[in-house]
C-alpha cells in the first residue's frame, strides 16, 4: 500500500499553496516535516479529501492495483485522522464523544477491548467523565489521537499530534506509533523533528508549498555524513560561522567557549571534527539550501 501524488496543485483564493508537487508515503511511519506555514496542513487536507485538488492526481495503491482514494466509502472506513485544530464536541464527555465516534464509524462493541487499551496507553482513564470543553490542551489532543485510532485504520494521519503533550506523553505516543506501524501507512506532520526521528522510515520535507525531499530516512541521513561538523570556538569566530553556515546547535561551556554543530560540504575551520548526522541535519540542509549566503 502506498499514497502517491503527481503534480498536485492547490490554489486558495487563486494563490498556489501546494505547488505542483510529487510525493510518496509508504507503509510504516512517514514524517511530513516543514516550518509553520510551509504547506503541511494543506497537503494533509488534500490527502484526506477535506480540500479538493486544483489539479494533479492522488492515488492510494492497494496490492491488487485498486485505487482506494477513488472509493470514498472504503477510504473513510480505513482512515484515521487527527486535524491540527481538533476540538471535538465540547459538551460531550470523553466517553460520550468516543461512543459517538464509534457510531459514526459503525464500530461494534467487539472493539471495546482495543479502545480500553488505547485509553490506558494515552492515560485517559481518569478523564472519561470530563467534558471536552473542560480538558487541558494536552489532554484534548490525546482524545483526538484516540478518536483517530478508534477504527484501527490502515491509513493514520496525525497533524501535529504532540502539540501540548508533556515529554512522557510524547514518548509514549511515539513508542505506540512505532508498535502499530506494520502493514499501515502512518503520516505524522510536525515541525518537531525529535518526535519522529527514531521511528520514521520515510521523510517528506515541504518548504513554501514545494516538496524539497522525499526519501528513506536511513538513506538520506547517511548521505549527510561528511557534511556535519562540530567546532569549539570563541564568540568572535562564532559570529563568522553564523554568517557562513547553517547551525544546528550552539552550547556555551563554563570557560566561555562555544560548542557548535554546523553543516558544510568541506572543513569549515581547522579544529572542526566530523560527526554523525541526524534527521535535524537533513531538514536544516534541505530547508536552508536555497539560501545563497551559506557555503554548502
The largest beta-sheet arranges its strands as 5-6-7-3-8-9
The fraction of residues in strands falls at: 25-35%
* Helix and strand run: EEEHEHEHHHEHEEEHEHEEEH
Apparent shape? globular
CATH architecture of the largest domain: 3-Layer(aba) Sandwich
CATH class of the largest domain: Alpha Beta
Count of DSSP strands: 13
N→C terminal distance: 37 Å
The chain-level mean pLDDT equals 90
- What is the fold-level CATH name, i.e. the topology of the largest domain? Rossmann fold
- By secondary-structure content and strand pairing, the structural class works out as alpha/beta
How many domain regions? 2
Radius of gyration (Å): 21 Å
Largest sheet: 6 strands, mixed
**Helicity level:** 25-40%
Protein described:
The protein has helices at 40-47, 72-77, 94-104, 112-121, 137-149, 167-180, 217-224, 235-244, 279-288; strands spanning 2-12, 15-26, 28-33, 55-61, 79-82, 155-159, 185-190, 202-207, 210-216, 228-233, 247-252, 258-263, 273-274. It is of the alpha/beta class and 296 residues long. It has two domains: 2-216, P-loop containing nucleotide triphosphate hydrolases (Rossmann fold); 226-275. Strands 5-6-7-3-8-9 form a six-stranded mixed β-sheet, sandwiched between helices. Strands 11-12-10-13 form a four-stranded antiparallel β-sheet. The protein has a three-stranded antiparallel β-sheet with strand order 2-1-4, covered by helices on one side. Helix 6 (167-180) links the parallel strand 6 and strand 7. The longest helix is centred in the middle third of the chain and has 14 residues, at 167-180. The chain is globular. The model has no long low-confidence stretch (mean pLDDT 90).
